[in-house]
Amino acid sequence: MWSDIEKRGRDALTRDMTEMFESGDRVGSFNVTFGDLLFDYSKTQMSEDDREALLTLARQAKLAEKRDAMFNGLRINETEGRAVLHTALRNLSGRSIHVDGADVMPVVLDTLTRMEHFAEAIRDGSFTGQGGAITDVVNIGIGGSDLGPVMAYAALAPYADGPRVHYISNVDGAHIHDTLKGLDPTTTLVIVASKTFTTIETMTNAETAKRWMAEQVTDPAAQFAALSTAADRTADFGIDPSRVFGFEDWVGGRYSVWGPIGLSLMIAIGPNDFRDFLSGGHEMDMHFCGAPLARNMPVMLALTGIWHNQGQGHGTRAVLPYDQRLLRLPAYLQQLEMESNGKRVSMDGADLKVDSGPVVWGEPGTNGQHAFYQLIHQGTRVVPCEFMVAARGHEPDLAHHHQLLVANCLAQSEALMRGRSLDEARALMAAKGLTGDELDRQARHRVFPGNRPSTTLIYPQLTPHVLGQIVALYEHRVFVEGVILGINSFDQWGVELGKELANSLAPVLAGDEPGADKDPSTRALVAYVQAHRES
Ligand code: F6P
Fold first, then answer.
1. For the range 101-104, what are the long-range contacts, defined as Cβ-Cβ under 8 Å and sequence gap of 24 or more?
2. What distance in Å separates the CA atoms of residue 474 and residue 147, rounded to the nearest whole number?
3. Which atom of ligand 1 is nearest to the CA of 196?
4. Hey, whose CA ends up nearest to atom 3 of ligand 1?
5. How far apart (Å, rounded) are the C-alpha atoms in residues 293 and 59?
6. Residue numbers of the chain with a pLDDT score lower than 50
7. How far is CA 339 from the centre of its chain?
8. Among 198, 199, 249, which residue has the most ligand 1 atoms within 8 Å of its CB, making it the best to mutate?
């Protein structure tokens, strides 16, 4: 079946996209709506036959059965022996969800209520720091314990009416130094967000923050909260259990923003808006579970991804939100997609027969237009682009800005598809008065090959509810691609080796161990650092 998709994808590379609009209602057929969201994938080289073949691939992979297995709490993360139930964190329907016969919802909802009480207490000033009401919240975490809340806090800035929130992730001392510099420890709450409570970056930053706090408050741990599955370790750190918010091992780090890891977001925007975020995600879950595959937004987003990557051989995809507040969405999606589907073996350990998930990257528009779009339009590689844009912004006084923003977004997908032919470029140069060889030479630089694929996701406005829908949409897209590839999207063994080697290099750098087992290049780099570091 893969060979069929590859053949179809490669054959379609020369298919003229603009001509594809001439027969039938391509616009009506190659889009999916759900609620107020519209996903348009008509500007691709996928034909109706190709789509049927992709849907067959999904059916053969037993997508519906595997989806149901996930939602029903089966241990589909086979290499870690875990269920995958981040969807339970946003299940506000009252429906029970069982893992090994036990309903997980009472604990999920109890934790949500505890988070809400804590968030309200901070927001209304009944929980204070040792110098007064909390003015600043610092979330210390990395990877999934950072990127979700960081992304969502920026996205929902118009709804943030609580204390300011800051995020520290990097073990680079510059990050914590620059973040804490302007803060008052007596009115700051530090949240240590770590599922395992062992991650070296997070624990190093947490200890540093505690020392910073201790310089001015008598009981630093009283201004700490923890988001973790490891209650014993949070207790060792000195954090009172009343400020520890736990979650189960069936919540993967990169899928965890919906639960306790979202506490900083909840404090910022308030419990009601946080519930709107959850309900948006839950609505997308219901759509994913109920809509026929061809009208199912996560499924069609995933099949478009499979078409471009494994079918047509485009190994990267650009995520291009025309929404400044989604500036961290590409980074968030990098972890979500690349940590989930960047695998080289299938569930049974056999080598994958096709490429794994693509390289995901991007920047908000219009900024990217003045940076890397040159390559997207005229480079030799084709980069499928995933545009997203809101119909309206949050600044009615600045509606003319928003109109320009939308015009730019739509113009880019149009330009990618249409391109500019040599004849058109020659006419432009002739109009400028050029003739002969010079006209030819200049015209060739102004040719756009066009026929370059993109998709567009449009939503009315970036509200908490819509953000929830978008994040859940991408989570399920990753799941669908993973199922079709036959891989486990929920482990991340690929991050382990680097961590182990970093641990073994630390004493070598310190000069406590010789590092004889290190390769010559690494030894030379160590020697350089030892010769140049602070004494
Ligand atoms: O980088 C690997 C990883 O395990 C991610 O999957 C996770 O989101 C991150 O580290 C942080 O882990 P923790 O929440 O346990 O500190």
1. 104/73, 104/248, 104/250
2. 14
3. 15
4. 143
5. 9
6. none
7. 10
8. 199
CA atoms of 337 and 332, how far apart (whole Å): 9
What pLDDT score does 307 carry? 98
Amino acid letter at 110?
Answer: D
Residue nearest to atom 4 of ligand 1 (CA): 253
- Look at residue 519 in the predicted model and tell me its pLDDT: 96
Pocket of ligand 1 contains residue 185 by CB under 6 Å? no
| 260 in contact with ligand 1, CB cutoff 6 A | no
Ligand 1 binding pocket includes 256 (Cβ within 6 Å) = no
Say which of 339, 363, 386, 475 is annotated catalytic.
Answer: 339
CB 244 within 8 A of CB 252: no
| CA–centroid distance for 129 within its chain | 33
pLDDT 10s digits, 336-371: 999 999 999 999 999 999 999 999 999 999 999 999
Which of 522, 455, 499, 463 minimizes the C-alpha distance to 43?
A: 455
- 339 catalytic? Reply is yes
CA 473/CA 489 separation, integer angstroms: 15
Is residue 250 within 8 A of residue 73, CB to CB? The reply is yes
How far does Cα 500 stand from its chain's mean position? 25
| Annotation says 370 is catalytic | yes
Q: What pLDDT was estimated at residue 24? A: 87
Q: Which residues of 320-331 are buried (b: 16+ CB within 10 A; e: fewer)?
A: bbbbbbbbbbbb
Which residue carries 């009615």 as its tokens? 396
Q: How far is CA 529 from the centre of its chain?
A: 34
Q: Which atom of ligand 1 is nearest to the CA of 201?
A: 16
**Which residue's CA is the closest to the ligand 1 atom numbered 16?**
194
> Whose structure tokens read 């209304």?
124
Indicate the Cα dihedral angle 56, 58, 62, 66, nearest 10°: -160
Q: What angle do CA 101, 105, 110 make, to 5 degrees?
A: 135
495 within ligand 1 shell (Cβ under 6 A): yes
Residue 5 near residue 56, CB atoms below 8 Å: no
Which residues, at least 6 apart from 29, have a Cβ–Cβ distance to it below 8 Å? 42, 48
126 CB-contact burial (10 Å; exposed 0-12 / middle 13-18 / buried 19+): exposed
Catalytic residue among 19, 22, 370, 496: 370
Tell me if 195 CB under 6 Å of ligand 1.
yes
Query: To which H or E segment does residue 411 belong?
Result: helix 399-418
Beta bridge partners of 39: 32, 457
Q: How far apart are CA 446 and CA 424, in angstroms?
A: 9
What span, in angstroms and rounded, lies between the C-alpha atoms of 466 and 350?
A: 39
DSSP 15-34: S-HHHHTTSS-HHHHSEEEE
pLDDT of the residue at 192: 98
The best mutation among 86, 140, 196 to test binding of ligand 1, ranked by most ligand atoms within 8 Å of the C-beta, falls on 196
